[in-house]
Design a protein that fits this description.
about 140 residues, alpha+beta, Chemotaxis protein chec, 5-stranded antiparallel sheet, two-stranded antiparallel sheet, 5 helices, about 45% helix, globular
């Protein structure tokens, strides 16, 4: 990420971002503690997640759960610069300082933005679980 909070995206990722935007502004979800990924959803997937959270909140009798979940998300239009650059909103860019590095990870119906060191640590923490799940799936 440069000093103007711009990130140059590889062409496949740029195409994925811009295709996700076709139905409206992307939805960014981030935990308040500034750790972990920023999750980016197309509007239709975000609406499905909202409904799932509302259903779970209703099921356990905790209406606040859905409100808290929704308060941590914001719709964001991603301004585009030339040469496939994406402008990272200022409030999100601060998560990636001082290194200014962002690791983008495709994860089914969303794209995650990670601080590279946090992603590596998360992968290391979950490696045993991933190996066990792989063995279960593989049979």
């Amino acid at each position: 990420m440069n000093t103007k909070n711009q990130v140059v995206l590889p062409s496949l990722l740029r195409d994925a971002f811009f295709n996700m935007e076709e139905e409206g502004p992307l939805q960014f979800y981030a935990e308040d503690d500034q750790r972990g990924p920023v999750e980016i959803y197309p509007p239709s997937v975000w609406r499905d997640k909202q409904q799932l959270m509302a259903d779970k909140a209703r099921e356990i009798g905790n209406r606040m759960l859905s409100l808290i979940f929704n308060s941590r998300a914001k719709p964001v239009d991603l301004p585009r610069g030339g040469n496939g650059r994406l402008l990272v909103p200022k409030e999100l860019a601060e998560r990636y300082r001082p290194s200014n590095e962002i690791l983008f990870v495709g994860n089914f119906t969303k794209i995650e933005m990670w601080v590279p060191e946090e992603f590596e640590a998360e992968m290391a923490r979950n490696m045993a679980d991933m190996k066990s799940a792989y063995e279960t799936i593989r049979g």
